Amino acid sequence: MRVAVVTPYYREPLEKLERCHASVINQTHADVTHIMVADGYPRAEVNAWPRCQHIPLPLSHADSGDAPRLIGCASAAAQAFDAVLLLDADNWFQPDHIETLLRVQQRHAALVVTCARRLVRPDNGELLGLCAESDGRRFNDTNCYLVMEQAFSLFAAWGLRTQQVTRSIGGLGDCLFWDAVSKSNAHRVHSPLATVNYETSFAIHYLSRKLPLPDFAKVNVWLPAEERYRQTSYAEYRDLVAAGHTADQGY
């Protein structure tokens, strides 16, 4: 079975791109092609990587990788791949990830397979444990899908939407994709095996484990002058509080 893995990337460090790519080409399922889509900042090194198709885009779309993801999936569909998986540039697969999901797919004749993920601290590699949110029932993370050819039309959710929706979602394209998958008639099965490693900076993943918030943790801050929330780091949030902002932090 011919499998493609689509990875949008932006300005991630080269070592993270290399780790991501290595986790794809070293899968126990050998027939895998890595489609890497540069969102306005292509790295020349990627052109020489084995089993990698590099699609450099001339500008950044500023949509958390949604448009590059859609372009990569469309390319995979046009090349008649049998299945597509998604992998963000700062995350990586366990060596048997694709084989595990294909085994589940074949056993249940599923068109979409989801799986669990392991949360990893990005600054020191500490394993935080399994993710409770991405369970294949309430939600599923972008990196934890295998989609068969008969369900490729679902990928339209990554970018074929109105400008009003695009402006308002603010990096929540994964929720729109999950909504499209969960409301579709595509037969879906979930694997409880956590074969995806996910670097997390979300504050909730530290707070729920009663861990101190690192400076890089993502916090949604209310800006009274602008009457809106903005995602920022915990370090910047502390500076805003010190400067007199008193509204809810909105973790």
Automatic annotation (TrEMBL):
InterPro entries: Glyco_trans_2-like, Nucleotide-diphossugar_trans. It holds the Pfam family Glycos_transf_2. The keyword Transferase applies. Residues 5-125 form the Glycosyltransferase 2-like domain. GO terms for molecular function: transferase activity. CDD domains: Glyco_tranf_GTA_type. Keywords: Transferase. This is Glycosyltransferase family 2 protein.
